[in-house]
Write a structure and sequence with these properties.
The complex is a heterodimer. Helix content of chain A is 33%, strand content 26%. By secondary structure, chain A is an alpha/beta fold. In chain A, a hairpin with a 2-residue loop joins β4 and β5. The two termini of chain B are 41 Å apart. The chains are: A alpha/beta, B mainly alpha. The interface between A and B is medium-sized, with 22 and 23 residues.
Chain lengths: 257, 273
């Protein structure tokens, strides 16, 4: 039975990839092993872990893009069997349609949901304003910087007003200054809307700055530690040199090693 | 005296505006002018009696047009070319797409596509003649034979290479697979598919002329055959230049269509982003 305030429940989920080698050799590579986690409504959680530990796989499974071998995933009380309206994903690469303007990219999800042109344009424009790109709505992706493209990707996800926002290392490829700006922007947006956010990152500092809870994954494909009692909000950059922050960071590094 | 800011940059400094670069079409015209000038000079120097000056060849085209000798054969050739090319595009894009989306179709047809790409199409022309007889249908079949396989190969490669990330993104936002295929996958493969269509057009022009020359001796090939029999180099080159102009006009039109439909790809490849 799913608890009332649990928004996303990952229950004993396993997933393996099959690789076909030469001479009929078959390799089964497990990426998730009986993984379980619960995420509460309006909670901002991060999943950190080393490269290849299955962080992205669990997010894609929650998004309904990756079928699982066993276990179950429940979002807002409904089992996941594919992509759904209550979820929206922000990808590591912004994956924008290169032929469409920022506005049309932000409106993509709304178009797929059958909204009329006027309404979807208005909502997409609103989402672009929210990420600070209202003035570049007519620009093509190739005319935007990396950070701006990622913000269009975030606007596209926000425009469909999902209950759960799935973010797969969205700031991983950005420079430090842009990354910090977007982190601040994300926190501001989250504080306004209080959506449930699942954020994948390999940056411990980023997870500590953004999250309510942090799940630490191991190479074995499951959660090895859950970090709770993080610093109180609102947070500031100055806190990154505080004793509490340093101790939490050390705790995560210890779990990772 | 020039004022200097705190950073040491002169306050009155104006940004250096780079000189406007020549447009591609201007460069193409310059290239054409050089080629024409070289031809004219070599022709005037009478290096060979089989290389008359350009003005004589253009004069012959003009005479052929004015006398009406070129009109009917040209119309006949162009009609076959456009019908044959349209069929090639229909078959080529459909089969290439099916090969990309179904590995079973791909396995079944790949060997034929690779074989036909390596085999000189001219070898198969007599077979088409035996099958279809002496008719314009045979000429169209030759054009289809020449062009289709290249369109198939390029379409297959374009659809296979289309961004999988974009496809996954569209799935994540609930796009139905068929709609996602047409709106995202095929659209992102568009520029490369157009590359195949351009290549196919060049092949179709070749097929048109070879078919006319080998099978029916009609259209432009009929005039060409007459001039060749009389060792009339000016006439032969007039027909060759006419065919070249047809090929350039048609591929330029395709290029313009590509720019209109896929301007995002053209501009991004030019800017290097």
């Amino acid at each position: 039975m799913v608890e009332r305030d649990v928004m996303v429940q990952v229950d004993q989920v396993s997933k393996s990839f099959v690789k076909y080698g030469k001479r009929g050799k078959v390799d089964v590579v497990p990426v998730l092993r009986e993984m379980s986690l619960d995420i509460h409504r309006a909670e901002f959680v991060s999943i950190v872990g080393p490269t290849g530990c299955g962080k992205t796989s669990v997010l894609r499974a929650i998004a309904g893009l990756l079928p699982i071998d066993s276990g179950r995933i429940v979002v807002d009380g409904r089992p996941v069997s594919g992509p759904g309206r209550e979820r929206a994903m922000v990808f590591q690469d912004p994956t924008l349609l290169p032929w469409a303007s920022a506005l049309d990219n932000a409106a993509f999800g709304l178009k797929q949901r059958g909204l009329g042109k006027r309404e979807r344009r208005a909502r997409a424009q609103e989402a672009l304003e929210l990420v600070g790109l209202g003035h570049r709505s007519g620009a093509l992706p190739q005319e935007l910087s990396g950070g701006m493209r990622q913000r269009v990707g975030i606007a596209r996800a926000l425009a469909v007003d999902p209950s759960v926002l799935l973010m797969d290392e969205p700031f991983g490829a950005l420079d430090e200054i842009t990354r910090r700006t977007l982190q601040d922007q994300l926190v501001r947006i989250w504080e306004q809307d209080k959506k449930t956010v699942i954020f994948i990152t390999h940056s411990v500092e980023e997870a500590l700055y953004l999250s309510d809870r942090i799940f630490v994954m191991s190479h074995a494909g499951h959660i090895i530690e859950t970090i709770t009692d993080l610093m109180p909000r609102p947070r500031t950059r100055e806190q990154e040199s505080s004793e509490e922050f340093v101790m939490l960071r050390a705790k995560i590094w210890e779990a990772l090693s | 005296m020039t004022a200097v800011t705190a950073t040491g940059v002169p306050a009155t400094a104006t940004p250096r505006i780079p000189r406007r670069r020549l447009r591609p079409v201007t460069l193409e015209l310059i290239g054409l002018a050089f080629g024409a000038l070289a031809w004219e000079l070599v022709g005037l120097a009478k290096v060979s009696r089989f290389l008359p000056p350009l003005h004589g060849v253009i004069g012959r085209i003009w005479d052929l047009l004015r006398s009406g000798q070129l009109g009917d054969p040209l119309t006949q050739s162009l009609r076959n070319l456009l019908i044959g090319y349209a069929i090639s595009v229909g078959i080529g894009v459909t089969v290439g797409t099916l090969m990309a989306v179904s590995k079973y179709v791909d396995y079944a047809l790949r060997i034929y596509v690779n074989g036909l790409m390596a085999t000189p199409s001219i070898l198969l022309v007599p077979i088409l003649y035996v099958i279809f007889g002496l008719s314009s249908f045979t000429l169209i079949a030759v054009i289809v034979l020449y062009a289709t396989v290249f369109i198939v190969a390029n379409t297959r490669s374009a659809v296979l290479g289309a961004s999988r990330d974009l496809t996954e993104m569209s799935q994540a936002f609930g796009t139905q697979p068929v709609r996602g295929f047409f709106e995202v996958t095929l659209r992102s493969a568009g520029p490369e598919i157009f590359g195949g269509l351009r290549l196919g057009m060049g092949r179709a022009v070749k097929g048109m002329f070879n078919g006319e020359l080998l099978i029916a001796v009609v259209g432009l090939a009929q005039i060409e055959r007459t001039y060749a029999g009389a060792f009339d180099a000016t006439g032969i080159l007039a027909i060759a230049l006419t065919i070249l102009i047809i090929a350039v006009v048609l591929t330029t039109a395709l290029e313009a269509l590509n720019r209109a439909l896929n301007s995002w790809a053209v501009s991004s490849s030019r800017s290097g982003s």
